[in-house]
Amino acid sequence: MNIKQASQLLPHLLSEIDLWNSSIQVDAPVFQIDLEFREQPRLPGFILLQNNKIVGIVSRSRFTFALSRQFAREIFMKGPIKVLFDFDVIDKSPMILDENLSISSAVQEVLSRSTLLAYEPVIVIHQNTPKLLEVDLLMRLQSDLLQEALFLHQRLIDDERKTANELRQTMLNLEQARDRLQRSEENLEAQVVQRTLELKKVNEDLIAQQKQINEDLEVARTLQQSILPSVFQQHDDYKVHAFMRAARMIGGDFYDAYQISDYQFGFVVADVSGKGVPAALFMILVKTILEEQAINHASPAACMQRLNSQLVINNPLSLFVTLIYGVLDIRTGIFTFCNAGHSMPYVIRNNQKIETVTNKSNPLVGLLDHPKYTNISIQLGKNDRILLMTDGVTECFNSNAEQYGELRLLRLLQKSHDIQHIDDLVKTLIDDLDHFSNGTPASDDITALVLQYNKEEVMNSNTIDNLGVLKELTIY
To answer: What is the greatest pairwise CA distance in the chain?
Structure first.
């Protein structure tokens, strides 16, 4: 059996799995469930129906545990199944999946449930009929699919090793031929002279090519810097300043700002996976798509959803990006943002408190098919500041392999209240990073954006969908 045939034997959709067609009306007696479990030891549970409507799942594990309680068998066996709803035996909100869902997507859905429900069976609507799926079976199939992928990967490695061995043999043959030629005294001198001239020419060509590559990279760096805003729009109600430095000639970090309406302004800081030219090209693609979405959609989460959808389609190198995109409403001082796998922002309050958001970030952008993105809102007061940055800031290293780290950053931000202008604050941060690294080459791009709100806030709680949970950061 070849690899292609083996792959076809494994199911990839829920519709291709053998499911349990086990359902029962809630008016049926409890002893009928017990009888069925005894007769079918592998039966995972029953779908409970009331007037042909799904009202829950009773799993073998929950049912067995319930009957193990004292006097439980005497109480339950005499009544109908619906009495179990009062004793925490039934999963009253079962997960229902579509039969066309892939196994990997189904695993992601199942694992998103709470720990108590992690291995409870789920319902699959198969040809308009509810059927039961064991989570253990789903996990085993996912494992088999992963093993299949690893097997294919190993086959590729074996093929490459075989090719490498063939190349080594070819090189050995060439070396033997070279030795025979070198043993020929009549042609040796002419060959040496000819080879020297050829190597000189190759070396000259390589130097010329390297020079051209460096010139092209310098032009690319200049173009990349030119697409990042060097001067931001001046406004009475807010100020913003940003900085980006690539670890190589060109990088994958970027920042941007957009005017969405007369009172809404968007700001973004992003970090593309990888370095160099591929990351820079992917960065331009992300920046272009996000700018289009940001101008047309006020919700950061909606922009992130559309950005991810387009990147998944146009991502042959499987690159991804982490970013934080937020919108400031200058009427209320509310900063609403969506964090896609990025570092949470730091809020620098006018009262010298430093805060950050404890909410979990959303999935990164560019790899998953259908991730969910949500917004978080922060209420800003007059002269409050927000720092958006990439992890290149805290992961800056010195010659002793020490990280700059969050503690040094917090100490610097604590002193930033003495700095009146945010452009001076950004410069102070970069100078502190340079002093700390002391010439050690950066391992990652460094990007930072500081936003300051200058207006007395007018909070309207009806405009806040999901107020972020803030915690004050203590500096020891």
So the answer is: 108
Q: Report pTM.
A: 0.56
Q: Which residue has the tokens 């969908």?
A: 465
Give the C-alpha separation, 344 to 471, whole Å.
Answer: 12
Pairing of strands 354-357, 470-472: antiparallel
CA 19 – CA 430 distance, rounded (Å): 59
Query: What is the distance between the terminal CA atoms of the chain, rounded to a whole angstrom?
Result: 64
Residue 93 DSSP label: S
CB atoms within 10 A of CB 288: 12
Q: Is 413 left (phi over 0), alpha (psi -120 to 50) or beta?
A: alpha
Cα separation, 133 vs 113, in Å, equals 15
d(Cα 135, Cα 16) in Å, to the nearest integer? 15
pLDDT tens string 8-57: 578 888 888 888 989 999 998 988 888 888 999 999 999 989 998 999 99
Helix (H, G, I), strand (E, B) or coil at 134: coil
Q: How far is CA 394 from CA 49, 104, 157, 436, in A?
A: 55, 34, 37, 11
Q: In a 3-state reduction of DSSP, which class is residue 450?
A: strand
**Taking the C-alpha atoms of 451, 455, 457 and 460 in order, what is their torsion angle to the nearest 10 degrees?**
-90
CB neighbour list of residue 33: distance below 8 Å, 6 or more residues apart: 24, 46, 58, 63, 81
